[in-house]
Write a structure and sequence with these properties.
Blueprint: E1 3-10, E2 13-25, E3 29-37, H1 46-57, E4 65-70, H2 74-82, E5 86-92, E6 100-106
Parallel strand pairs: 3-4
Antiparallel strand pairs: 1-2, 2-3, 4-6, 5-6
Length: 114
């Protein structure tokens, strides 16, 4: 599994980070380990740019794109839903007792056969 790290900068200051596995999730997909944007800069396109860059890197992963988000992180769920991701399942107690991680997935785009 190849790991990747993308950093968004504003001038020379890092303002966002995206850490991922290019493939291997569920034996085929790309996995987003972390997407974080500096407080105060959310909603300005930094997260979207990082997400798009990761999607481009993971585009060849046959199983699509995966990530986990805590069930109470409504802002994250809205963000990913706006970008075509959907909930596929829940993992109660996976990361910590009493917390539920949501499996979020975006299928790989299949080229048209026109």
């Amino acid at each position: 599994m190849t790991e990747g790290l993308l950093v968004a900068t504003l001038g020379s200051e890092p303002v966002g980070v995206c850490w991922f596995l290019e493939s291997g999730t569920f034996a085929t997909g790309s996995y987003l380990r972390l997407l974080a944007v500096k407080p105060g800069l959310q909603g300005q396109g930094v997260g979207e740019q990082l997400l798009r860059a990761w999607e481009a890197r993971g585009a060849s992963a046959g199983g699509g794109l995966f990530l986990l988000a805590l069930d109470f992180n409504e802002a994250a769920h809205r963000f990913y839903a706006r970008h075509g991701y959907r909930e596929m399942g829940r993992l109660p107690g996976f990361a910590r007792p009493g917390m539920t991680e949501v499996i979020i997935w975006k299928p790989r785009a299949v080229p048209s056969q026109d």
